[in-house]
Each structure stands twice: as structure tokens, then as C-alpha cells.
Amino acid sequence: MGSSEMCRDLAGEVEKLLKTSNSYLRKKAALCAVHVIRKVPELMEMFLPATKNLLSEKNHGVLHTSVVLLTEMCERSPDMLSHFRKLVPQLVRILKNLIMSGYSPEHDVSGISDPFLQVRILRLLRILGKGDDDSSEAMNDILAQVATNTETSKNVGNAILYETVLTIMDIKSESGLRVLAINILGRFLLNNDKNIRYVALTSLLKTVQTDHNAVQRHRSTIVDCLKDLDVSIKRRAMELSFALVNGNNIRGMMKELLYFLDSCDPEFKADCASGIFLAAEKYAPSKRWHIDTIMRVLTTAGSYVRDDCVPNLIQLITNSVEMHAYTVQRLYKALLDDISQQPFVQVSSWCIGEYGDLLVSGQCEEEDPIQVKDEVLDVLEGLLASNLSSPVTRGYALTAVMKLSTRLSSVNRIKKVVSIYGSSIDVELQQRAVEYNALFKKYDHMRCALLERMPIMEKAAANGPTETVQTNGEAEPAGLEPKHPPTIIQPANQCFNIFTGFLVISLVLVLTVYKIAILTKRKVSPIGIPPMTAYNKNGLKIDFTFERSNTNPNIAIITIHAANSTEAEMTNFVFQAAVPKTFQLQLLSPSSSIIPALNQGPVTQVIKVLNPQKVRLMRIKLTYNHKGSPVQDLAEVNNFPPQSWQ
What we know:
This protein has helices at residues 4-17, 23-39, 48-54, 60-76, 78-84, 88-100, 115-129, 133-149, 155-170, 175-188, 194-207, 212-216, 219-224, 231-244, 250-263, 266-283, 287-301, 309-319, 324-337, 342-361, 374-385, 391-403, 411-420, 427-442, 447-450, 507-514, 518-521; strands at 108-109, 112-113, 468-469, 475-476, 487-489, 532-537, 540-548, 555-564, 570-578, 584-587, 603-610, 618-626, 629-637. The chain is α+β, with helices and mostly antiparallel strands. Among the domains are: 4-244, Leucine-rich Repeat Variant (Alpha Horseshoe), CATH 1.25.10; 532-644, Immunoglobulin-like. Helix 6 runs antiparallel to helix 7, helix 10 (175-188) runs antiparallel to helix 11 (194-207) and helix 20 runs parallel beside helix 22. The two termini are 54 Å apart. The relative contact order is 0.04.
């Protein structure tokens, strides 16, 4: 309860009481010293001499509070951390006495001697051993002893084992000891207690990057957790399952995850579908398997997938020339069964429009060709008339009908269908229909050329290093997307190209296909754009720095620098941004999801804004965990420097 002024005045008295002969007073004085240090950190050195002597006490209460005091000092001062590393042998000796001592009624809890003190010592050892070879070497043996001798039938033993595992994973421990720690977590997954299973999954998720092969041994147990009734366990199991996917197990893991996608609650479907898309793109054993997997997701959870899945799948199909006949047959057959999943219907419509002639050509040996060409038009007309179809889906269907005018012989029927929608109440659909009617009447000689098949679309690699590290620890070649893909926020009213009907979604694709030279002629110097502070609250400060893209000066590149001035790190940091509909915004992956404490290093993330002229407003959303509590905040950035949009 004491204020900083009171702590400053009484610190000398507290320091004297730490040396008193009364153990009860020494215990209380140590706790007061912890509070004084929290309020007035510069008084820390005053307690340094007395703190060393406290570890020689026999009284467990004094020992416990002295370890708490040491922990507080090490967390707040790198100098103290270096100074107290020489106490590691003494702490190891205390811990060894605890686990080797006989029964003591005063300290025994479920057959374990003073588990509270053991946990405190393990936490302090974790801090002292992190990043230090000598300290880690000194505690390897005792950690192995604790891990093998602690009884696991009670929660008390599980708590000690959990702290032991965290300590082993944080220090520079031997490889065999790390495998032992992961095996302990694997045993936790078989425990009936849901809390223990949850902390095991969370810990494995943190360690999978450094000990991927050891975690892989428990893959079947982790996958079984997807069937758990507890939603928290299912979410952690799903995240860990995706982290375990690699080129060797992609087929088996995708089979299990697709089963999970079929039966999981709606709250999981979006994240699960996104994870499957990313894993399939990185590790697909063949293009056919890749296409089949994405189609399975779209037919199962099409309403929950990201907006960019439709153009991504269209691009994949377009580039797989040998799979066109097979793909359009599969999509057509699936469309006859279900038209409720709008992204799937959009992809199907696009493919039927592009490759509708392959439906009747018999090029696909695995499927029987369509016998009556009008059946294809019947399906598309059904989509146009269906109440289940969204305006965007109807746009796809109308464009597909128009494209079939150069691929099938039913031109008169197609003219009638197009003319009907020239008076549609949907302005976008009406505009397309009027344009297509004009194409029939005035530019019929150009129709075949304008409606020919789309060329192969090359996917531009995101700017970044030539090599990144995946969650499984393998080196990933340049050009692959990172684990968290760039998020593209698009205007609500997407428009269709007037003749091709190809949905204009990705700026990169448009520039690749049509090579709009006018956008690359202007040269804007990035020099002279001052940085700005976009957010500064609760110890979190976010600065923006600006530059212009070398390849396209119409793209502004904003780099955010998130720094944490508090004494505890911020974890699970997520930065989101939105701009007005007249712009396109692309968020690349952050450098980390953890912002170190005390400004020890910022987290950076790149934002790309298309057409940044006069961007005066951006809304941002920040989500992170701080000191065990989730934090979420919204802010509006409206103080951009004029040079950033001139």
C-alpha cells in the first residue's frame, strides 16, 4: 500500500529488518523490499548485501521470500542478473535438498516437500540460466533429477514438472534434456485434467520452432485433441497441428484437419480454412492434390474463407494448364449438388466461363463429358436466378455466360440471357449486361479476341528476405509466403473488367497481366518524409516511417515500429489497420508477435498502401497480452505528414 515517497523514506528501516534475528520479521521485511523495489527501482542496490545472506536461512518462509526478492531484482536489472548468476550452485543445492529430503509434516504437500519453494526456485533458475552457458550447465543435472523423480499422480507434482519444463526450454539445456521435457508435455496430453492438457498444448506450441522433431513424435496425441469437447483445447490443438505440417506428413495431417473442418464449430472454420490454404500452398505434393484440397475446403466451409481465396484458387487453376479439364468437370459436378457456398460458386462460375468447352470435349478421361451443351447454360442461369446468389456471384455467373458465347454454339440463347439483366435492379449487374449487349451489337467482330482465355498469371513474391524460417525449423526458399500471409483489405464494391469479366482484386495481378505502364513512369523521391508517432499509450508506442516503392511510386510503404517501455513483455501482439474504400491496403507479416520489455527492441511490420494521395485517415486496432491480461484498443491516425501523400 505504500507510495513511492513512503517507500523511499522507509527503505533504510526495511534493510535493517532484513538482518534481524527474528525469522518472521526477516520474511516480512523481504516482502516489503520487493514492494520498495517495484515502487522505487533505484533503491535496489541497498538490499544487495542482505539478500545474499537470506539464502543461507533454514526457515522455508524466509527462503521463499528471499527467492521472490532475488527474482524481482533480476527481472528489473541486467546488472543484478549478472551479479546473482554466481548464486546458481547455491540455489541448485537448496533445490536438491528439497527433493531428496525425507518426510516433513511442516512442509509436505501431497508427498512433495514444499512445492511452493520448489516452483519459486525453478522460476529463478530459468531467469538466471537464460542466455548463459555456464549457469545452464550448472543446473542441467538438477533439472533432470526433478523431471525424473517428481510424482505425477497429484497436481502438485504436475505444477513442479511444468515449471521444470519451462526452465529446460528457456535455458541453454542439453538436447537430451529438451527431449525429456517435451516427452513430459506429451504425457500431460494424456491427462484427464483439461487444464493440464491445455498448458501442455500451449507449451508445445511455443517449443515447436526449436524442437520440431521431438514434438512431431507426439503428433497423433495432438491430433486426438482436435476431438476434445473443450473449445480452448481444440483451438490450441488446431494451431499446433498446423505448426507440425511439413512436406513429409502433409497428406495425413490434411486428412485429419479436413475431418476437423467438417465437424468443428463455426468459430473455428475461418482459421482452420486459412491454415489449410497456407499449408497446401507450401507443401502440396501435386497440383491436382492442391486443387482437390482447396475445393474440399470451399465446399465444406466456403462461407468462412478469406476474401482472397477466390482469386488465389483461380490463379492456381489458370496456371495448371494440364488440370483444366479435370478441374472444370469436378467443379461442375459439385455445383449441381450445392450452390450455397458462395466462394465455391464464384470459382466454379469463373472456370465454367473460361473452360466450358472442355466440359463437352471429353478431354478428361475420369469424367463423362456433358452430352447436352444447354445443360451448362441451365446451371449458370439457375445461379443468376437463385436467391442464394450474392451480387458478386451473379456477376461471375453473367460473365461466365458471356464468355461461353465464344466457346459454345448457343449464342442466341446467351444474347437473351444477357439482355434480360440489362434492366436488373442491381446497378453493377445491369451495367455489365448493357456493356455485354453493346459488345454483341457494335463490336461483335472483336468479341472472340476480347473474351479469349485469361493468360497464365504470375504471382509476385512479397518483398522480404531471400530466406525465412518456417515453424518446423526448415529453411524456406525465397518467394514462398510467410506463415501469416499479407492481408489485403479491399473496397466493398469490387468491379469487373468491362470485357473479360475477371474480378479486379489484386493490384499485383492486374499489373502483371495488363502491365499498366503509366503507373511506373512517375518517380517520387522518398527523401524528406519525416516519421510520426501514431500511437502512444499504456507503455506501447508505435511510430510510422515512410518511403515510396521503387517499382511503383503509387504504392506508399509504411513501416511500423512498435516499442514497449513497460517492465513486462507484450505477447500475442497483433496490429490491424483500415483505410477508406478508395485505397487498397496490404499488411505484411510482423517481425515478431512479442514486444520485449524496457524498449529492448521494437517489432516492425510493413504496410503497403495503393494510391496514397492525401491519405489523411487510418484506423488501427491493437491486440496483445500484457502481464497475463488481454488488451485491445482502437485508435484513429489522422496526423500524417504532408510529404507522405504529395
